[in-house]
UniProtKB/TrEMBL annotation:
Name used for this protein in its record: Threonine/serine dehydratase
Top-level taxon: Bacteria
SUPFAM superfamilies membership: Tryptophan synthase beta subunit-like PLP-dependent enzymes
Keyword Magnesium: no
Amino acid sequence: MILLETIQAAHDRIRAHIHRTPVLTNRTLNGLSGVDLYFKPENLQKIGAFKARGGLNAVLHLSEQERYHGRTLGPVTTHSSGNHAQAVAFAARQVGTMAYIVMPRTAPEVKKEAVLGYGADIIECEPTLEAREAGVREVMERTGATLIHPFDDDRVIAGQATAAKELIEDAGLDKPFDVIMAPVGGGGLLSGTALVTHFISPRTRVVAGEPEGAADAILSFKSGKVEKAPFIKTIADGLMTSLSERTLGYMREHVTDILTVSDAEIGAAMRLVWERMKIIIEPSAAVPLAVLLKNNERFAGQKVGIILTGGNVDLGKLPF
């Protein structure tokens, strides 16, 4: 069970290792959307993505437990298409242990290079969840590594929650947000965002964005059980993962709605941020803004916070 105290402890644990990213506004985007927008640019975070928060909290928490018993933390492992891979590699370096990262062979080269740069080993696999999980099992059997799951872990979720916590503290206390938006892949960020919003800004609604080409979360949210996407084909490579029972449970309790957008709409929103805000975000990060622009009558006149999740984009494969 994640409580407000759990999230506060996570924030205290990781504070020295992360940036407190700023809150950005943009008059042009406000005018285009008719919405009072506040952006949390986690593309400016360590490793270039919010995932640093959850990865650090999980690894540092494990390290604390081991030190309590007089032991040094052994190797850690995970599977990820990129940003969580970097987060675990970065966190492992911070505590002086080894990380073994199982990555799909199709993962962006910029993310693979970053993982290697943090000193981790990469084990490539086919781009399926089954292959990723099999790869992690092999690593655990061979090395004795501890799994840091990308999202099905309360320590990871509590760490991810700190992004929305900062957003609310920095821009949503005097006049609370009407809505906070985040993208959804495996649901770790969305779960953490929904939980901390429930605790400290209970009147604020949480709305998720999802690509049409990886639309499992919206099906799961409606049916109440973990569903598979009808097909997977999207430029938002960070959002291709299915939910877990854990994240679906948190979402069903505290998320208001999930809305989908096409790749063309994602690319247009991404380009808009590059051109108007002068910051680099990856396709997954553009999904909530794309949802807002597509459904702007639903948000018109409201105060909306958007978590821009990361900026680790392959510059050789831009959608524009």
